[in-house]
């Protein structure tokens, strides 16, 4: 029986790390300890950094307090990691980014730009507030202009009469 089938669904309580990059080993069950999943958990990192960290994290995992058959599985992962290259990581990053794309439809005036969904929503809310506040300012100006007297000929006639006296 393999370690994956024996410990399927198990998260090992003995694993602790303050490094967020190791969360796949600390928080996920053994069946998710794969190279593709490791890459998926680090989508914004440089491929060379991902590869180097993955190898360091596997070495760390081999030193942890784990059952012997799990350590053998980690040893297998370490051997397999020698066959993984930066180009492999790049391919996995590209396949992850294309499969996780999301369509968002926004109505109203929206600037064209690129970014993730958080940036799009933030920029949309920001631009909507600007439109709303600028329309309030223009309404105030319009009301102010309407209140001004349009005909000043009365004042000009009084000035002419004073000069004639």
Written overview of the protein:
It is a single chain. The model is unreliable at 127-146 (pLDDT under 50). The chain has helices at 3-6, 23-27, 35-40, 47-63, 68-81, 86-99, 117-147, 153-164. By secondary structure, it is mostly helical. Helix content is 62%, strand content 0%. Helix 4 (47-63) packs antiparallel against helix 5 (68-81). It is built from eight helices and no strands. The radius of gyration is 33 Å and the shape is globular. It folds into two domains: 3-99; 117-164.
Number of helices, where a helix is a run of at least 4 consecutive DSSP H or I residues? 8
Shape: globular
Mean pLDDT across every amino acid position: 76
Helix content: 55-70%
The count of DSSP E runs of length 2 or more, i.e. the number of strands, is 0
Low-confidence stretches: 127-146
Sketch the topology as an H/E string, one letter per element: HHHHHHHH
Assign the structural class, choosing from mainly alpha, mainly beta, alpha/beta, alpha+beta, or little secondary structure: mainly alpha
Taken together, the total number of domains comes to 2
The first-to-last residue Cα distance is 119 Å
Proportion in β-strands: under 5%
Main pleated-sheet profile: none
Q: What is Rg? A: 33 Å
In short:
The protein has helices spanning 3-6, 23-27, 35-40, 47-63, 68-81, 86-99, 117-147, 153-164. It has 165 residues and is mainly α. It folds into 2 domains: 3-99; 117-164.
Walk me through the topology.
Elements: H1 3-6, H2 23-27, H3 35-40, H4 47-63, H5 68-81, H6 86-99, H7 117-147, H8 153-164
Helix pairs in contact: 4-5, 4-6
């Amino acid at each position: 029986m393999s370690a994956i089938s024996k410990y399927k669904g198990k998260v090992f309580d003995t694993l602790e790390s303050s490094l967020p990059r190791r969360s796949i080993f600390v928080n996920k069950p053994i069946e998710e300890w794969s190279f593709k999943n490791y890459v998926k958990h680090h989508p914004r990192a440089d491929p060379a950094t991902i590869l180097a960290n993955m190898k360091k994290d596997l070495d760390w995992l081999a030193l942890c307090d784990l059952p012997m058959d799990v350590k053998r599985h980690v040893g297998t992962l370490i051997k397999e990691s020698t066959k993984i290259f930066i180009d492999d990581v790049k391919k996995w990053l590209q396949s992850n980014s294309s499969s996780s794309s999301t369509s968002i439809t926004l109505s109203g005036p929206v600037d064209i730009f690129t970014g993730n969904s958080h940036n799009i929503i933030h920029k949309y809310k920001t631009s909507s507030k600007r439109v709303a506040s600028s329309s309030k300012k223009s309404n105030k100006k319009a009301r102010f202009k309407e209140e001004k007297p349009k005909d000043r000929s009365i004042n000009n006639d009084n000035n002419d009469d004073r000069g004639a006296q």
